[in-house]
């Protein structure tokens, strides 16, 4: 069999021919190098990404660490029922779900508004050097870990921190009235939102600035000739110009609503703000690895992944139907 | 002629506009952007100043942009600790090894799924993409690592994250944009797929590989959760981020049940203090990334725009 013939045979004709399977293996043998280069990593993928999905079975068992899989006792949806109805757990779990949705929602809205605003402002800067400096500086917090960021945020918000000093200086509070910001539970969502904006505002502008740079300059010239000022050009040309990108990213981010993050909440959370900082991921960590209730924690994690999957899948589908390019 | 007229008209308009409205607009933009830079940079400069200030003096407060009593004692103290010395080594090792493995493996798989003739192309691609939508979660992952015997090993920093799907996709997009003629000529010369990949595709992919390498290095250097989860009982495998996390945790909770390096500043109150050690460790843990990212700016900007919008 010569090389050309195998290359041009399409899969559909393959199935019809009686020699289809044989042909498939002939080609597989010819492409053994490609197989060798990729299949070991598929095996890796199965072990590290698919085997844990099999681990969901724990959620349906009264899992005992010492026992074999066949010896475990199956209990159906018992642990899911506990999550949603049991007095001791459901309050905390539902609180964790609320906190997850609230924080990712806040993050979504603040993240979009702040990044788009910054991109619009940067686009109006005429001095190239200044623009470059601002951009480089604004990327900085993205490159530090949440551990470092949390340390900085704690220092800034401490009673002797710079925010309290600033409040005293402008006369909002007096000496001795300093706020313990991270001790006020109901402020946590706001602090989390502000921290996330601080960390990623610059990074998030990259996509918008790229979209802005692909807008046809002739549009701006035409608008200028018609007497449109810079604010109007921003509103009527730049914003509509990046609309498709904004919509796709917005839809994709709605798919990630169950992912509110783990590190900032864990690192900034404390006993005083736990009512507002504990999200599903922290709930899983607490019950799973600190109290060793593996089935309950796995059930909570599984609930999160399944809801996430539905959200992501719908988001992707909607983006496709709107005629925008899907992420994948 | 008409063109010329319109050009001069444009100039007139912009010069008239720039008289007042434009100037105010400009001033607002510059003020807002300068404020943003201050808010971003101040915490770092302040932390740096505290780390370079004598510990006893820092306790009095009031240090902002510059150290008041310049001193390198904090850094000397931190690096005299075996823990920090060792943690730095582990942080560097996992960043370097993790990045090399990730870049090579991701590029290799990306190459195979960019070959239109590869019969398993669809299968491999879909197997990877499914894992973007669905994952086992914390507990099953932990049990897997435990059952594989990877607890308390260095390998646990490298093995679970060899290939990220995002990296795979941006490298594949890049390879697909390469001119076919180059790959074809290699084939005519009789080069096999592995040789074509190593000798031709890898060098051509340098820009996108730089992007992936940067993402990988940053995430390896900055991660602490896997240390906490899998290796917290083994001090020799601790990293800088995890050491810093322990310090933060300790200064958060007043009860200092945990002892060790995180508290060791307290005894030596003349030279160092928890405050100054914390600032110094923050600088040590963040400075390497702060130094490298500006040089790789054009790569990550490209990577984000290719991967983020088009996929």
Automatic annotation (TrEMBL), chain A:
Belongs to the binding-protein-dependent transport system permease family. Residues 97-315 form the ABC transmembrane type-1 domain. This is Sugar ABC transporter permease. SUPFAM superfamilies: MetI-like. The keyword Iron does not apply. It is a multi-pass membrane protein. Its main location: membrane. Keywords: Membrane, Transmembrane, Transmembrane helix, Transport. It comes from the Bacteria. It comes from Paenibacillus terricola. The chain crosses the membrane at residues 33-51, 101-122, 235-258, 294-313. InterPro entries: MetI-like, MetI-like_sf. It is found in: Cell membrane; Membrane.
TrEMBL record, chain B:
Its main location: membrane. Residues 88-296 form the ABC transmembrane type-1 domain. The chain crosses the membrane at residues 24-45, 84-111, 123-142, 154-175, 196-218, 275-296. Pfam families: BPD_transp_1 (PF00528). Keywords: Cell membrane, Membrane, Transmembrane, Transmembrane helix, Transport. It is found in: Cell membrane. It is a multi-pass membrane protein. It comes from the Bacteria. PROSITE patterns: ABC_TM1. InterPro entries: MetI-like, MetI-like_sf. Belongs to the binding-protein-dependent transport system permease family. This is Carbohydrate ABC transporter permease.
């Amino acid at each position: 069999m010569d090389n050309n013939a195998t290359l041009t045979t399409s899969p559909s004709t393959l199935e019809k021919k009686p020699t289809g399977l044989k042909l498939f293996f002939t080609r597989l043998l010819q492409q053994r190098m490609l197989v060798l280069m990729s299949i070991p990593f598929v095996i890796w993928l199965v072990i590290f990404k698919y085997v844990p999905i099999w681990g969901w079975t724990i959620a349906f068992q009264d899992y005992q660490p010492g026992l074999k899989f066949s010896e475990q006792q199956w209990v159906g949806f018992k642990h899911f029922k506990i999550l949603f109805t049991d007095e001791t757990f459901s309050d905390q779990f539902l609180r964790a779900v609320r906190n997850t949705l609230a924080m990712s929602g806040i993050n979504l809205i603040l993240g979009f508004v702040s990044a788009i605003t910054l991109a619009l402002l940067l686009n109006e800067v005429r001095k190239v050097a200044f623009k470059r400096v601002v951009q480089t500086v604004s990327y900085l917090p993205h490159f530090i870990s949440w551990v470092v960021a949390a340390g900085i945020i704690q220092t800034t918000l401490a009673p002797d921190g710079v925010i309290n000093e600033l409040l005293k200086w402008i006369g909002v509070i007096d000496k001795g009235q300093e706020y313990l910001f991270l001790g006020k539970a109901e402020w946590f969502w706001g602090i989390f939102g502000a921290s996330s904006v601080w960390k990623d505002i610059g990074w998030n502008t990259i996509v918008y600035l790229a979209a802005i740079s692909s807008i046809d300059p002739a549009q701006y010239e035409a608008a200028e000739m018609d007497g449109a000022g810079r604010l109007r050009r921003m509103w009527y040309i730049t914003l509509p110009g990046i609309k498709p990108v904004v919509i796709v990213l917005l839809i994709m981010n709605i798919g990630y609503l169950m992912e509110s993050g783990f590190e900032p909440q864990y690192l900034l959370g404390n006993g005083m703000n736990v009512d507002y900082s504990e999200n599903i991921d922290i709930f899983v960590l607490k019950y799973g690895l600190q109290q060793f209730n593996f089935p309950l924690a796995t059930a909570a994690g599984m609930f999160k992944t399944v809801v996430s999957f539905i959200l992501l899948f719908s988001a992707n589908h909607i983006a496709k139907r709107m005629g925008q390019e899907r992420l994948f | 002629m008409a063109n010329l007229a319109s050009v001069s008209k444009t100039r007139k308009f912009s010069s008239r506009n720039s008289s007042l409205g434009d100037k105010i607009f400009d001033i607002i933009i510059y003020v807002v952007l300068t404020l943003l830079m201050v808010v971003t940079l101040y915490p770092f400069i302040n932390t740096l100043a505290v780390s370079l200030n004598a510990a006893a003096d820092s306790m009095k407060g009031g240090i902002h942009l510059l150290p008041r009593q310049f001193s390198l004692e904090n850094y000397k103290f931190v690096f005299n600790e075996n823990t920090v010395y060792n943690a730095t080594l582990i942080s560097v090792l996992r960043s370097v090894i993790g990045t090399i493995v990730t870049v090579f493996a991701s590029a290799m798989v990306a190459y195979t799924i960019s070959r239109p003739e590869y019969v398993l192309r669809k299968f491999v691609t879909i197997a990877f993409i499914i894992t973007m939508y669905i994952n086992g979660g914390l507990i099953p992952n932990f049990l897997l690592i435990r059952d594989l015997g990877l607890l308390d090993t260095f390998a646990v920093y490298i093995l679970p994250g060899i290939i990220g799907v995002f990296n795979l996709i941006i490298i594949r997009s890049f390879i697909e944009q390469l001119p076919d003629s180059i790959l074809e000529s290699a084939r005519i010369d009789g080069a096999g797929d592995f040789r074509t990949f190593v000798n031709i595709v890898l060098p051509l992919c340098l820009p996108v590989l730089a992007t992936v390498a940067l993402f990988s290095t940053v995430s390896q250097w900055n991660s602490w959760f896997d240390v906490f989860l899998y290796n917290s009982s083994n001090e020799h495998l601790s990293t800088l981020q995890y050491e810093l996390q322990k310090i933060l945790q300790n200064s958060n909770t007043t009860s200092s049940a945990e002892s060790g390096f995180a508290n060791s500043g307290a005894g030596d109150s003349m030279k160092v203090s928890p405050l100054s050690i914390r600032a110094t460790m923050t600088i040590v843990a963040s400075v390497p990334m702060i130094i490298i990212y500006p040089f790789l700016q054009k790569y990550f900007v490209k990577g984000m725009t290719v991967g983020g919008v088009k996929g």
